[in-house]
Amino acid sequence: MKTVARFVVFALVFSLGVVSVYSAVGQIKAPTRVKGEDPVYPESARAKKIPPRPVVLEATFSKEGKIEEAKVVKSAHPILDKIALKAVKGWEYTPLVLNGVAVEYVIIDLTVNFVEPPEKAKKK
Predict the structure, then answer these.
(1) What is the pTM (predicted TM-score) of this model?
(2) How many domains does the chain have?
(3) Residue 124 has what pLDDT?
(4) Cβ within 8 Å of residue 6, ≥6 positions away
């Protein structure tokens, strides 16, 4: 088996409502996003002169790479926070694989960036 990467991994595993913290050294295949787009910066925010800053989330992922839970850890503005949370509900990732086994995991700094609406991007 070829080693993809060697890292020290800290994972929070949720089992029957009990949180366990694991530290492991081994072969890890990092997850990558396979479904979902960055949210479009909303006109309502532009009208209120809210800058298009990123929103940082904490997200819990299933073994299958689906986001099960997400919460804001660094707010940009309530309007942007709401849109970011809605956007990530449709995102899917490849599983995080540790020593050949898919595991549940938590990403604390899942950054959601906003993109310009297609008609605004074309004008640039």
Answers:
(1) 0.73
(2) 1
(3) 53
(4) 25, 26, 27, 28
